[in-house]
Amino acid sequence: MAAPSYTDSEHTSPAPPPYPVASTHGGRTPSLPPSGDLPDSYIFRSQRIQLDLGRRVWPVRAPCYGYTDQIGGSVSVTTLEHVKRIDVTVEGIVEALFTERGATVGFERNALFRRLVTLYTQSRPGPGTTTPIPNRSYNYPFSITFPATCDNDTTRLPPSFTSLHGEVRYCIRVEMIRWGLRRRERRVCMTLVVPILYFPRSYTPVSHAQPTLNHETFMLLGDVKDIHLVPRPLSKCEGKCKAHMSADVQAKIMLPLPLVTTSGDHVPFTITIDSQSSALVALYTDITIQHVKIRETKAHERSYVRETLLSYSRVHDAKQMGGGVQVLFGELLIGGVPGAEFSWSARGIMQVRHVIKVSVRPPAGLSTNLSVFEAAIPIVVVSHRRPSRHNLEADVAAPALELTAGRL
């Protein structure tokens, strides 16, 4: 039997999105600097508010943070006259939008998390109340930590992401709420909104080690999973032949546990084809194992699904075990860009998941009365292999900079 050849699929991803510029009353959202113009420090200003997020650490054009990272900075204002409160909010939002002919046909937005810190508060000044000195700079430091998971959920925060129909975005919002000049006047809110990037790393489990590629040892491992492949007839006799064909031939794949891996890992597998007829087993020569990334966006009844083929498998060897049993040995290279591929979900609105697709079938010319066996096996892809204990704490909070290339 000829083993399928291994090829790496090429895939392209869009560049990181230019974050939209949104205006609010009395404030503005500053645009990010060009990618080739990296600032020494991240300082953003509006007419009355300045947000200083400190010196640039990573070679990216926007403030960038990793898993449970801490956002530290300071807010400066030129006056506190008539100011009731100054708030700093860090929030994440997932949003999906579908349009047809310029009209919105599906829209959904959900908050991932929200953290608010009040930097200054003052009750309404009365007669004889001392007012702050005008034309002086007031500085308020703050520190806010990214949570590990979404609010009211156990799902990890997803990375910053944009696609044709959806977006996961994070921002820092500074609001200066002022009293109206007259008691009955509405409060005036001046706002500065700064987009930030969140690129969390994810790691393989503590006890995870890359499985051995020795076939004899692999078959004796305890931490493996047998997955029976579902038969599907190719002919029009589905109703009459399905039960008969399923009994004649059976197929299964064995994979190591846990099904958690990273780009660049080699995942060994065995495929067993079993039948009372050795001649029937020998007909199954078309074996395909694929690593596929699936990106989904949903908004009510609208959805968008895009599949990207990241890699094919290699079958190294085939052994006739006797009694109508054939065992195929191979390995699948987990594809994609190392450090930039991982599984995530955002409130059921957007998600990126990975599967191993398996197909065992006879040649097309011999498939009239034979089944084809298929399965889509979910796997979890993480961005990094767990480092040594000595470097783990430093590495966890570091952002996955590979994501800055937009390869999600």
Under the CATH scheme, which class of the largest domain? Mainly Beta
Cα radius of gyration in angstroms: 28 Å
Count up the domains.
Answer: 2
Characterize the biggest β-sheet.
11 strands, mixed
How far is the first residue's CA from the last residue's CA? 37 Å
How many strands appear in the DSSP assignment? 23
Q: Based on the structure given, which CATH architecture of the largest domain is correct?
A: Sandwich
Question: Strand-and-helix sequence, N→C?
Answer: EEEEEEEEEEEEHEEHEEEHEEEEEEH
- Percentage of residues in strands: over 45%
What percent of the residues sit in helical stretches (DSSP H or I)? under 10%
Structural class designation? mainly beta
Question: Unreliable stretches, pLDDT < 50, 5 or more residues?
Answer: 1-33
The residue-averaged pLDDT reads: 81
CATH topology of the largest domain: Immunoglobulin-like
Total helical elements: 4
Shape: elongated
InterPro entries: Arrestin-like_C, Arrestin-like_N, Arrestin_domain-protein, Ig_E-set
Organism: Ceratobasidium theobromae
Protein name: Arrestin-like N-terminal domain-containing protein
Pfam family, one: Arrestin_N
